Predict the structure.
Amino acid sequence: MRAMRAARIALALGGLAIIAADIVLTVQSTGGIDTGDYFGQFTILSVLFVSTAMLVAASTRREPRGWVHVRACGLTALAVAAVLHATLLGGAAGASGDIVNTLLHTVFPTLALVDWALAPSTGRTRWATALAGLVFAVLYLGYTLVRGAIVGWYPYDFVNPTGPAGYAGLVQSLAIVLVAFLVVGAVVAGIGMLRDRLTRPRVAAATR
C-alpha cells in the first residue's frame, strides 16, 4: 500500500509539473498568458482535478466517503478531454509544444487510467458512477458560458454560442459531448466495478 500511495503522489505531482511546464513554455513562446483564459481550458482543469484528488486520497489513511465517485468524475473528464482534443480539436499542440501536448493529452490520462484500474477505493463503484463525470461537465459549461458572455472569449468553438451556428450549433455540439461523457463514464465505471470485484477481498482483509 505504501508503494501505491507513493506512486499516486508522484503521479499527482507529475500532473501539476506538466501544467507548470505548460505555463512556463507558453509564456516563453508568446510573451505572456491570460490566467483566466488558461485556467478556463477543460484539459487544464481536468488535470488539476485528478491530481488534487490523487493527493487527497494518498494523504489519508482512508479515503473520504464517496471518494470513488470523485475519482470517477475526474478520470471521465480527463479521458473525454483527451478524446475531444484528438477528434474535434485535431490533436494540435499549443504554444508549449508537442512534448507537453503529449504529456497532457496522452501520457497523464493513460497513467490516471492505470491508477483507477489498480488502486481500489473504500467505496464501491456502481453503474450510477458513470454519471459522476456529468457533474464536472455541467459546472464547467455553466462557468464557461457565463465567463464567455462577460469577457467575450470561449476556449473552444463548440462551446461558443456567438459563432455562425449560434445556440443551435451549441446544442448540437453539446449533444455529441454528452454522448462522449456517457460512453466514457460507462467504461470508467465498468473498469471500476471489475477492479472492485478482483480486489475487494484483499481490501477487506487489510482493513480488519
In short: The chain has one domain: 2-206.
